[in-house]
Structure prediction request, 105 residues.
Amino acid sequence: TLANIGSIKEPGSILVLEINAIDYSMAQIGQIVESNNAKILSSYILSDVSSSLLEVTLKVNEINLTRIILTFERYDYKIKASYQAGFGDEDVRWKYDALMNFMKF
Prediction:
């Protein structure tokens, strides 16, 4: 089924990079992701005929992309977007609980 293609059901996050076509290297992208103890579950490349830029969309098996994003930025990759479903929910809950405890006093 379509849901099984592209690791849609797998937990993880999505990262979108913007890269010059001449600089594109899936080997380097994979090395950066794997150096942060993550795996690429799927990837998709979109090219614009009017530009030399590629849009590389990655699905990785990490919920928190912070370390991966910082590593890409260290290698001068442009992060176009990132989607981290559920990241920070625990932090929001903890802040809410702390506020409720504070208001009890």
Observations:
- The longest strand covers residues 13-20.
- The two ends are 54 Å apart (CA to CA).
- Strands lie at 13-20, 40-47, 53-60, 78-83.
- The chain is about 30% helix and 30% strand.
